[in-house]
Amino acid sequence: MNDGRFGRFGGRYVPETLMVALDELATAWRTLRHDPEFLAELRDHQRKFVGRPTPLYEAQRLSEYHGGATIHFKREDLCHTGAHKLNNALGQVILAVRMGKRRIIAETGAGQHGVATATVCARFGLACVVYMGVEDMRRQEVNVRRMRMLGAEVRAVESGTATLKDATSEAIRDWVTHVRDTHYVIGSAVGPAPYPEMVRDLQRVIGDEAREQYLSEFGTLPDVVMACVGGGSNSIGMFTAFRDDPGVELVGVEAGGRGLVSGEHAAGAAGGTPGVLHGSYSLLLQDAAGQIRRTHSVAAGLDYPGVGPEHAMLSDTGRASYLPVEDTDALAAFRLCTSSEGIIPALETSHVLHHAGVRARALGRGGRVLVCLSGRGDKDLHTVAETEVPADESAAVPGGA
Predict the structure, then answer these.
(1) Does some domain include residue 93?
(2) Which residue from 123, 159, 195, 289 has the least number of CB within 10 angstroms?
(3) Cross-referenced PANTHER family, in alphabetical order (predicted)?
(4) From 63, 74, 85, 341, the catalytic residue
C-alpha cells in the first residue's frame, strides 16, 4: 500500500471538506498503530471486553458429512456482541477518543457493526448515531432494538434500495457536516484512505491468531483459507496473515443472490468493474454509464455493490479468488451447520460454509480448510423463518439432524 492505494485501487475521491479530516486521521493512525501505550490499551480491551483470543474449532460432524478435508472454524461469533465487527469498532473508538472526538457515527447493514459501535460508545460514554436502511431495519429488527438499548440513535435511510450502500452515503453526508467533532467509524475495509488500511490492521488480529493457533496445534498451515466478502473486513483481516504463505489458497465468498446471470446479486469482485464509490476506486457493480446497480442478497451484511480496494488488488493479481454463492445454497448451509455442529452461523458466513463443503470434498481426506466464522446467526432467524429451505441436507447429517 502506498499513499492509500493498493495497486491501481484505493485512493481518496471525496469532497474537499473531508481532506483535512482524512489527513488528521491518517496521521493519528500511522502514529498510534506503533504506539506501545495505545497498543497495550487496545490489547487489554480485546482480552477483557471482546473476549480474545477466539478459539480455533474443528467442525467434526460437518467434515464427516462432506467426507473430505477437515474443516476448522475461527470462532469470531464468540466475540462480545457476536461478530468480528467489535475488533474494528473498538480500535477506531479508542483512536477517536485520543483525537478528542466525542461524537461517533456509523453505517450498518446486518446491524452487527452498528451494535458493535453502539456497544463501544456505551463503554466509553460517547454519543452515537447509526445510519441503517429501512429494508435492513426490517430484516434485522433485533439488532435495531439492541442498538437503541445501548443508547445509540438509529436513523432510518429510505433512499435507493434502503440497504447498506444508502446508509453509507447518508453517514458520509453527516460526516461532511459535522467533521470537526465527529469520527465516522466505517465498518468495512472500504472508503477513502486511510480507512481500508486501518480497518485491515484492526481486523488482522483474526488471521494472526488463527495462523498461530493452526501452527501450534498442527505444525502446518491450512490448504485453503476462506471468508465471506461484502466490503470485506473479516476476510482481509484473515487473508493478511496468510498472504505471504504461497502454499495457502485464499478464497473470498460473495453474495451470488439469485445468480450472476439474473443480475440480482451483490458479487462486487466476481461480477464488478473498476469505478468509484464512497470515496474509493475499486471493483463495483455498475452499468455502462457508471451508475451503481441495485443489489440483492439474503444476507444484509453482504448486500453491498462493491468490495474494498485491497480485495480488488488481490483479485487483480490473482493472489485471492472470489466466488459467488447463491441464497439457496447459503440457506441450506445455514441449516446444515446449525443441525450438525450446534452452531448457528450468520447468513453472511453461511455463504462460505457452502463453498467450504465443496472444497472439502474436492481436497479429500488429509486436506485442511480454515473458515472465518465471522458472526452468529441469531439475528437472521426472522429471515430464515420467512424462507423456504430444502430439508434434504439437514436430514442427511450423520447421526440424524
Answers:
(1) yes
(2) 289
(3) TRYPTOPHAN SYNTHASE, TRYPTOPHAN SYNTHASE-RELATED
(4) 85
Which of these is catalytic: 76, 107, 209, 264? Answer: 107
Query: Which pLDDT belongs to residue 390?
Result: 54
Q: Which of 200, 202, 187, 307 minimizes the C-alpha distance to 243?
A: 200
Would you say the pTM of this structure is higher than 0.90?
Answer: yes
For residue 367, the 8-state DSSP code is -
Do 209 and 174 sit in the same domain of this protein?
A: no
CA–CA separation, 196 and 275 (whole Å): 16
Which of 63, 235, 374, 394 is flagged as catalytic? 374
Under 8 Å between Cβ of 377 and 344: yes
The cell for 376 is 452468529
SS3 387: coil
Say whether both 190 and 310 belong to one domain: no
Q: Are residues 315 and 224 in the same domain?
A: yes
Integer CA distances (angstroms), 393 to 70, 315, 369, in order: 19, 32, 20
The Cβ of residue 30 has, within 10 Å, a number of other Cβ atoms equal to 13
What's the structural domain count of the chain? Answer: 2
Whether residue 56 is found in the same domain as residue 89: no
Q: Which of 192, 146, 250, 231 is nearest to 21 (CA)?
A: 192
Give residue 340's domain range: 51-82+204-387
Q: What is the pLDDT of residue 391?
A: 53
Annotated catalytic residue 48: no
107 is known as an active-site residue: yes
Domain boundary residue among 163, 194, 225? 194
Q: What is the pLDDT of residues 369-384, one digit of tens each?
A: 999 999 999 989 988 9
Residues 244 and 354 in one domain: yes
| Tens of pLDDT, residues 199-246 | 999 999 999 999 999 999 999 999 999 999 999 999 999 999 999 999
DSSP per-residue letters across 61-117:
HHHHHHTSSEEEEEEGGGSTTSBTHHHHHHHHHHHHHHTT--EEEEEESSSHHHHHH
Among the candidates 135, 167, 194, a domain finishes at 194
Domain at 378, CATH number: 3.40.50.1100
Concerning whether 141 is annotated as a catalytic residue, the answer is no
Residue 395 lies in a domain: no
Given a contact cutoff of 8 angstroms between Cβ atoms, the answer to whether 130 and 81 are in contact is no
